[in-house]
Design goal:
With 217 residues, the chain is α/β, with parallel strands linked by helices. The protein has a single domain, classed as 3-Layer(aba) Sandwich (Rossmann fold). Helix content is 37%, strand content 12%. It contains seven helices and seven strands; from the N terminus they run H-H-E-H-H-E-E-H-E-H-E-E-E-H. It has a five-stranded mixed sheet, with helices on both faces. Strands 6-7 form a two-stranded antiparallel sheet. A hairpin with a 2-residue loop joins strand 2 and strand 3.
């Protein structure tokens, strides 16, 4: 498995104190990085279409800036990002390791997890993802409780899509996060459709109201 200390040839960016690639806040810099994420996703889809990817893959096409914004907002060394099956934009903003991601998805030893994790199951420093709907939300609450117990300033951002709002584990996680006052940020990326079903057919009421029901502000 590859070492977490990335070779600079794999991460051609300067890094901030948390290890994330430094990207300017001006529109041009944000667009350039977002465009790089998109082109990487298009490359992955091309590789998938040619049968060069084992298993499946889920891209973040159209959600690049949203995914970048969440990860860029976390500025404590102990902050954690727990992502989902559509994680590439989150990971690239967290690590800057474009080559390592593509190699991982292709099952290569040079991948960020040695080729074992593939598209959905990535573990790198304080970044973790898996493909189970709401599968990381309970883990996020556990990590957040541990951070609180150790007196850390870090928080845990657990990121889901609108399709995950039908999973019971999400609400169990919200309930415990509220009871324990755990430093968890529940992020819902609502792209209006879950696989082939429009959000308007599956979600009643406001998405934000679901968090408020548990006293989460």
């Amino acid at each position: 498995m590859r070492n977490d200390n990335l070779d600079t040839t794999l991460c051609p960016f300067d890094r901030d104190p948390t290890g994330k690639p430094i990207v300017g806040s001006d529109p041009r810099s944000l667009f350039a990085f977002g465009h790089l994420v998109r082109e990487t996703e298009k490359l992955i889809l091309d590789l998938f279409g040619r049968g060069l990817v084992s298993g499946t893959t889920h891209t973040c096409l159209g959600q690049e800036i949203c995914q970048m914004a969440v990860v860029r907002a976390l500025d404590e060394p102990r902050d954690h990002v727990l992502s989902n099956h559509r994680n590439h934009g989150h990971f690239l903003t967290y690590s800057g390791d474009f080559t390592g991601l593509v190699a991982e998805i292709m099952g290569r030893e040079s991948g960020v997890c040695g080729g074992w994790g593939g598209s959905q199951h990535i573990a790198y420093r304080n970044f973790h993802s898996n493909g189970v709907q709401a599968g990381m939300t309970a883990i996020a609450v556990g990590i957040a409780r541990a951070l609180k117990a150790e007196g850390s300033r870090g928080i845990v951002a657990t990121i889901i899509g609108d399709g995950t709002l039908g999973e019971g584990l999400l609400y169990e996680s919200m309930n415990l996060a509220s009871i324990w006052q755990a430093p968890v940020l529940f992020v819902v990326e609502n792209n209006g459709i879950a696989q082939t079903t429009y959000t308007r057919h599956t979600i009643g009421g406001g998405i934000e109201d679901r968090g408020r029901a548990f006293g989460l502000a």
